[in-house]
Amino acid sequence: MNPHIVKTYGEELDQLSAEVILMGGLAEAQVADAVDAVARRDVALAQSVITRDHRLDELEKDIERKSIRLIALRQPMAADLRKTVAAMKISTSLERTGDLAKNIAKRAVIISEAEPMSPLTRSIERMGKLVSSRLRDVLDAYRSGKLDMAMSVWSSDTEVDEHYNALFRELLTYMMGDPRTISACTHILFMAKNLERIGDHATNIAEHIHYELTGEDYVEDRPKGTTV
């Protein structure tokens, strides 16, 4: 086989991974900025998150297009095929993570007009930091090819559920105590649900990494807590 062709093929695979890593960094920033916008009641930052979402959409389409082209023209096998498929699947999870961050930002704009509810926004901030750290860790696992790091993220999924349940109970207390807070609390509840789903996408990514590195689907039941 022509060494030049082999080198180009390897470069195409590396470029695919590099785009996933770039997309991961953008998604991570979107989540962090959306949560900051809630905590600081920063409408301009929230609007920035909403505006930047299209970049993730474009990257996902580009990764999908390049993956399909690589499979069609190069017919990768074994580890190379798994690397290509994992890149497509991870990019889909990251695009959906961006959508959820955008949803949080949209609600941040709305609740910025309501009376501040600092204890609740602090709870969202804590949950957001936890989810962001899981997303960062799983992306580091993808970048470094460390299976144990990915599985550590997978096994910590219950922490996010516990935060969601605690915040749900806190919101109920607020709404029962003062019905005027129901509208704002409902938006905060949806934000918390968005964060919980971002945590699920981090778990999905961990499973895709497991598949890429081992060639096997991860079939264990997820360590989900009971969500209310």
- CATH architecture, by name, is Up-down Bundle
CATH class category: Mainly Alpha
Helix content: over 70%
Tell me, briefly, the overall form. Answer: elongated
Distance between the termini: 58 Å
Number of strands: 0
Number of helices: 7
Give the topology string: H per helix, E per strand: HHHHHHH
Strand proportion, as a percent range, falls in under 5%
Arithmetic mean of pLDDT: 90
Overall radius of gyration: 19 Å
The CATH homologous superfamily name equals Phosphate transport system protein phou homolog 2, domain 2
Q: Flag low-confidence runs.
A: 1-5
How many structural domains?
A: 1
Structure class = mainly alpha
Please explain how this structure is put together.
The protein is mainly α. It has seven helices and no strands. Helix 2 runs antiparallel to helix 3. The N and C termini lie far apart (58 Å). The N terminus is likely disordered.
